[in-house]
Amino acid sequence: MRILVVGAGATGGFFGARLVRAGRDVTFLVRPRRAALLRERGLRITGLGENEILRPELVTAAELAEPYDVVLVSVKAAALERAVEDVAPAVGPRTVIVPFLNGMAHLDTLNARFGKESVLGGVVKVMTTINADGDILRVGPLAGFVLGEQGGGISPRVAELGKELDVDGYEFTVSADIIGEMWRKWAFIASLGAITCLMRGSVGDVAAVPGGAEFARAVIAEAAAVASAAGHPVPDAELEASTAICTRAGSPVTSSMYRDVAAGNPAEVEHVFGDLVARARAMSVDTPLLDLATLHLRVHQHRVTS
Ligand SMILES: NC(=O)C1=CN([C@@H]2O[C@H](COP(=O)(O)OP(=O)(O)OC[C@H]3O[C@@H](n4cnc5c(N)ncnc54)[C@H](OP(=O)(O)O)[C@@H]3O)[C@@H](O)[C@H]2O)C=CC1
Ligand SMILES: CC(C)(CO)C(=O)C(=O)O
Question: Is 116 annotated as catalytic?
Answer without folding.
Answer: no
